[in-house]
Amino acid sequence: MKFDTQKQIRFHHCDPAGIVFYPQYFYLLHEAQEDFLAHIGYPEHELIASGIGVPIVDLKTEFLGMCRYGDEINIRLSLSRIGNASLGMRYEVHSASRIPDAGKSLKLLAKTVVVCSEVPHGKVLPIPDGLRQALLPYLDTELEENKS
Known about the structure:
Layout: E1 3-8, H1 23-39, H2 44-49, E2 52-53, E3 56-63, E4 72-82, E5 86-95, E6 106-115, E7 117-118, H3 129-135, H4 141-146
Antiparallel strand pairs: 1-4, 2-7, 3-6, 4-5, 5-6
């Protein structure tokens, strides 16, 4: 199963040309992570309040097209791996831009690894059982099979 969340590209996301300035995508991806965790019943602010953080420890991004001021985007998140203490997340950013990029809707692919850790010290923790159960439906086994 995949999780989808919609966002609108705002003025503060863009450079003077009206195109998303690349570091702003990282804010959007983190917002999608927060939306996802809230959707499965584990809002990130509640995890942090309980002493559990999920910081990103690895991030790979492939920029495939431009998003522009005013565009509506869809961020699709799935899990590529659930380990003892870490998760592999995969993101796709799609946009029906008002100015087409050769007809492509896929604008960005990203892969992250987040690690369950103790707040504030950062000690690695196993993923709690309840959270693991809530994550499992979003594990995309096709992604694992295609890695080889």
